[in-house]
Automatic annotation (TrEMBL):
Protein name: DUF4383 domain-containing protein
Keywords: Membrane, Transmembrane, Transmembrane helix
Source organism: Amycolatopsis alba DSM 44262
Pfam families: DUF4383
Residues spanning the membrane: 32-55, 62-87, 99-117
């Protein structure tokens, strides 16, 4: 989960440096990924919450499910947005964003399921001092 958090935090922070007002929509990118104000805030938030969750092991379970739900929704919205290329889209998703969000969502789901097992929850509780 730390890797996921760091990737999103890095993309979110770098995205703020690629937002010149003169660019046309869709031209603001960090490598392959869109860089819009809304998307940068979402990515930075996912990154910061992930780092906080990793520092507090009992919070990782909630972070996994929150990340799964949020990014599954972003993936669904992004696929619709990229497929229709609507001009009024404030987030301006592209297909690279959709793949990143889908892979992150699936990774968070798998981690959440693994963490839901009783033995894993017991180990996390011991490590957290509960």
């Amino acid at each position: 989960m730390l890797v996921i958090a760091l990737v999103h935090l890095t993309l979110g922070i770098l995205g703020f440096f690629f937002l010149p007002e003169a660019n046309q929509p869709g031209e603001n990118t960090v490598w392959l990924f869109s860089a819009t104000g809304m998307l940068n805030i979402i990515r930075a938030l996912i990154g910061v919450l992930g780092i906080v969750a990793v520092l507090k092991p009992s919070a990782i379970y909630g972070y996994c499910w929150m990340t799964f739900l949020a990014l599954a929704g972003l993936t669904a919205f992004g696929v619709f947005s990229a497929a229709t290329s609507s001009a009024g889209d404030a987030v301006n998703f592209n297909w690279a964003d959709n793949v990143l969000h889908a892979l992150t969502s699936v990774s968070a789901l798998v981690a959440g399921i693994v963490l839901a097992s009783p033995s894993t929850r017991k180990n996390l509780g011991r490590r957290a001092g509960v």
